[in-house]
Every structure is written in structure tokens, then in C-alpha cells.
Amino acid sequence: MTATTRTAPAGRRRVAVAGVALSDCGRVDEATPYALHAQAARRALADSGLDRSLVDGIASAGLGTLAPVEVAEYLGLRPTWVDSTSVGGATWEVMAAHAADAIAAGRANAVLLVYGSTARADIKARRRTSNLSFGARGPLQFEVPYGHTLVAKYAMAARRHMHEYGTTLEQLAEVAVQARANAALNPEAMFRTPVTTDEVLSGPMIADPFTKLHCCIRSDGGCAVLLVAEDYVKDLAKPPVWILGAGEHTSHTTMSEWEDFTVSPAAVSGRLAFERAGVTPADIDVAEIYDAFTYMTLVTLEDLGFCAKGEGGAYFADKSAVPVNTDGGGLSACHPGMRGLFLLVEAVRQLRGEAPGRQTRRPDGSLPELALASGTGGWFCSSGTVILGRG
């Protein structure tokens, strides 16, 4: 089944992505996070061709004491629907699902998802320091005293996968190599110089088995996505991209409550998204997957059903596999914090044919029909998966 054959359930409106945009990204020393929010929002509205007066919903997280109230005020919006769900990198896929449900049910008409962060600039200017943990209250109090950092948690999970399935350091390194190769084709990517497997493996150790290039970059940047009811499609500046299905799932906070380090919450969010969209992994033409660390890409591909459990390394190395993180991902393009919204922007651009130099195509040369964006939050604590389609 493809996007063009799916219809909305009776009584529910279809939901389209009307506009997408990035703010300035990479090294942005002179802007505030609020300014990046505004820049991305203006650009997304311009991309849609709609007036901002139509926006009656806003979703934002990660900025201010009362997000999204402060962001809405800064943007000059007075929404009647808001969402401030914050589940790490999966936030934006989860928010997109919530917004799509609200629009489909008639509780909102046009919802703006918007994000901006100056994580890199703040550290450079000594306005903040790098955080080693998310805090030491609640369940985390039993882990933080032992120096169990976020990167260490991902590293432990990667080592378990290597032990269980024979995944190799070279296979993990290939994820970083391919991300940089994609970024080399993306003029908006922060790091574009190709890297080799040997360079990944020989880099400074961060948390065994992760060297520096196994880990995401730190950048500044923001982006925005505008979702609208089907009623507005006739007024759009560009053909719509439709939200076909979405799923969300949370699994654990403490590592002791994680039943299997080799299974991510995408195993549930992906299954729900595919069921609701009425498609399968084999139908997907391009996949944008959260990649704060190389291991995330492999295990998420497995859990979404693109390959069997334990086969992620071999699958990713197969050049006939689904194109992944076509903009360079968090490993090379940008990673200002909660990167999940960037996945939706790139997925829409690929479906529209707006990714010059890195544009993916189907075997017959046509543009992709179906795209997937899957965000991950915390240390595989949460997942949101969204399936989008043309037509």
C-alpha cells in the first residue's frame, strides 16, 4: 500500500505538512535561542504560503520556564491549542502525533512545531557547561553517584549488542562514515569533510566503545514544521506531504528497569506507526533516524523492522538498504539538542524533491513516496515514529 491509496477514517480530517524550514545552523554565535525559533518559524510559514494569523496551535519544548507560552508570546501568537511534551530527542515526533490527532479531530487547524538552541555557542561563551547527567533526583539518584553518564549508558548498550550478536566496531564506525558522506552533499551540514573507518576507530575515546566520531556533534540551530488540516491544502505554496501514521512509546528511566539493552522503544512506536499508516518497512523509501551515537542507528533500524534483530550492522553496510539520514544526521549535519524536529524537515524535503545533491529516488527514478522519521529520547527511554507520504 502506498500513500496515494490511503484515506482518512470517516469523520477525521487528513493532516498535511504545509511548511518546513531550518534557522541558521552550525556555528551561530550572535543569536539567542528565541531568535532562532523566530527565524525558523518565519521561514516555515513562508515555505507554506500561509499567513501566520491562521496558526492556532503551537508545540515547543526546551526553552523558558513556561514553554511553549514564552515562545508563543515571542512569536506574537495566541494559540488555543498547545503542547509542551518533553521526552528528549523523541519530543518532536511525539508532538507531531499529538498535533495530528488534534487537527484530525477538529481541535486545531494549523499547528506550528518550533525549536531553537544555542548549545554550542553557550558553551563557547561560558554561559553554560557540558552536562554529565540529567540530574540526581528520583530514580536517577541510584545511578548518578557512580558516574553513569548519558554517553556511558549508550556505550553499555552498544557493548551488549556486540556481545549478543557479534556486531563489530567496524560496523558501528561505518555509520559515522556514511553520515559524513551524506553531509558532504549537504551545504547546510556543519561537518562535510569525509572520514574513514580508520579515522573513526583511532579517534580519542569518549566511552568504550565510542570514540569521538561515534558521538553526535554539538551545534547551534533551530527548525520549524507547520501542520495543517486538509482544508488548507488548496492554499499551500507547495504540494502537501501527509501524516499517514504515528506511534509513541516510553520504556524506562533507570538502566536497571531496561529489560533488554539491545531493544529500543522504537520496536513499539514503529509497530504502531506502521499499523496506523497501513504500510510496512519494505514500502519506505527514505528513513531519518535519531543518531546521537552510531549504535542508535543500527538498533533502531532493527527495531523498526528494516532488518532482523542483530543484523543492523550488516544491513547498514548493504548499499541496497533504505537511505538513512540523508542530510548527514546528528553525527555530521547538526545536533543542537533535541534533534527530532530536524528529522521531519529532512523527510519532507526528500519527499518534495527539495534536497539537491543528496536527493534520493526510487529504483524507477521517481521521487520517494514514503518517508519515516523516528526520534529517540534520553538513553533509549522514549521513541516517536512518524510516517509521511506524498499524494
Summarize it:
By secondary structure, the protein is α/β, with parallel strands linked by helices. 32% of the residues lie in helices and 17% in strands.
Question: How would a crystallographer describe the biggest sheet?
Answer: 9 strands, mixed
Percent in strands? 15-25%
Dominant shape: globular
Radius of gyration: 20 Å
Low-confidence stretches: 1-6
> Secondary-structure element order, as H and E?
EHEHEHEHHHHEEEEHEHHHHEE
> Which range best describes the helical content: under 10%, 10-25%, 25-40%, 40-55%, 55-70% or over 70%?
25-40%
Can you give the mean pLDDT? 93
Q: Going across the major beta sheet, what is the strand order?
A: 3-2-4-7-1-8-11-10-9
Secondary-structure content class? alpha/beta
Q: How far apart, in Å, are the first and last alpha carbons?
A: 13 Å
- According to DSSP, the number of beta strands is 11
Number of helices, where a helix is a run of at least 4 consecutive DSSP H or I residues? 12
Pfam families: Thiolase_C_1
Protein name: Thiolase C-terminal domain-containing protein
InterPro entries: Thiolase (IPR002155), Thiolase-like (IPR016039), Thiolase_C_2 (IPR055140)
Domain Thiolase C-terminal: 247-390
